[in-house]
Amino acid sequence: MRHLIAALSAMLFASPAFAALPEDGAINFQPAATRIAERIHEFHFVLLWIITLITALVTVLLVWVMVRYSSAANKTPRKFSHNTTVEVIWTVVPALILVGIASLSFPNLYYQGVTPNLGQIAATSKALLAEGKTAEHLEYTKNHFPDAAEKGFVNIKMQGNQWNWTYTYMDIKDDSDTAIEFVSNGIHKGRPSDKANYEAATGRTDFDSQPTNYAVDYPMVIPAGRYIRYYTAAADVIHSWTVPSFSVKTDAIPGRLNEGWFLVEQPGVYYGQCSELCGIDHAFMPIEVRVVPQGQFDRWAELMKAGDFDAAAASVRQIASIESETKFASTN
Ligand SMILES: [Cu+2]
């Protein structure tokens, strides 16, 4: 039986978990892990085309003016200083370009900035299917996730502290009705003693294999394919909860709650850093998000409820694939 479980586990963990990290010498964004990020990347490439064409046009005009109207080619310049037609064109055309850019930008801002109404998403999806509008339904489900909407939000509060993050899962409560809450500390602090401290505290020997200035002791864990609604807050100064591959960056401000949402379909490990200069250890308050299948998330939550943070963190060190989720849940 033990061999069977071992074999099953090996099969479950056969596919390497995806990790979103910056790479040396790379250009461009980290791969998009949310629809929010995909939309922002698409918008970015439209802007890149526009800016490239404008730069090329201006360069051609400049070169043409320099050649055609140099003192050698144009010995007696004319003395006029206004041309109404040209002035109207160079005012109206850039204004139209800006209106065009805004019309592409505002829907993205709205999509990202307004927490979706899940009841409406489920209802709209059902209505489209009932009316047999398959094409519209396909288009709708590019930006909305009816299956996830049916399951509701996973609510998480991220609180920035000098210098770590506190994560609170308001809806997941233990027997004494206390929500799961834990502090997530970076394991690298730029000190020679970091490795020894880490090994002494955790009994683990994987310090060197973890990404420098990105790995934490207790990562944030979320289920794949679920709507995450988050709130950011701060205990002391302004921090910013940022994960580039999610295209999520929300300031954490003392005295107020900021709200946002995201949904990650692909299980994996996603890294970010505090992105608001917050004091001497600003560089050492990383964000590590482990996105796991629902079954693995539920098991993590059970361990957290029982107060066994180390076992919970160990249970998400390897990430099951979506296909193996059912098997995972039943063998553990
Ligand atoms: Cu900070």
Could you outline the blueprint of secondary structure elements for this entry?
Blueprint: H1 2-12, E1 18-20, H2 35-68, H3 84-113, H4 118-130, H5 134-143, H6 146-151, E2 154-161, E3 164-173, E4 179-184, H7 194-202, E5 220-223, E6 228-234, E7 239-243, E8 248-252, E9 258-262, E10 268-273, E11 286-292, H8 294-305, H9 309-315, H10 325-331
Parallel strand pairs: 1-10, 2-6, 5-11
Antiparallel strand pairs: 2-3, 3-4, 6-9, 7-8, 10-11
Helix pairs in contact: 1-10, 2-3, 8-9, 8-10
The structure holds copper (II) ion.
Residues 160, 239, 274, 276, 278, 282, 285 line the site of copper (II) ion (CU).
Description of the structure:
The protein is of the alpha/beta class. It folds into three domains: 201 residues, Immunoglobulin-like (Sandwich); 79 residues, Helix Hairpins (Orthogonal Bundle), CATH 1.10.287.90; 27 residues. Strands 4-3-2-6-9 form a five-stranded mixed beta sheet, with helices on one face. Strands 1-10-11-5 form a four-stranded mixed beta sheet, covered by helices on one side. Helix 8 runs antiparallel to helix 9 and helix 8 runs parallel beside helix 10. The longest helix is centred in the N-terminal third of the chain and has 34 residues. The protein starts with a helix and ends with a helix. The chain binds copper (II) ion. The site of copper (II) ion has 7 residues, from loops.
Q: Note the gap between the termini.
A: 13 Å
The first-level CATH class of the largest domain is given as Mainly Beta
Kindly estimate the percentage of residues that lie in beta strands according to DSSP. Answer: 15-25%
Gyration radius (Cα, Å) is 26 Å
Please, how many helices? 10
Round the mean pLDDT to the nearest integer and report it: 90
Present as ligands are: copper (II) ion
Q: How helix-rich are the residues, as a percent range? A: 40-55%
Based on the coordinates given, report the CATH architecture of the largest domain. Answer: Sandwich
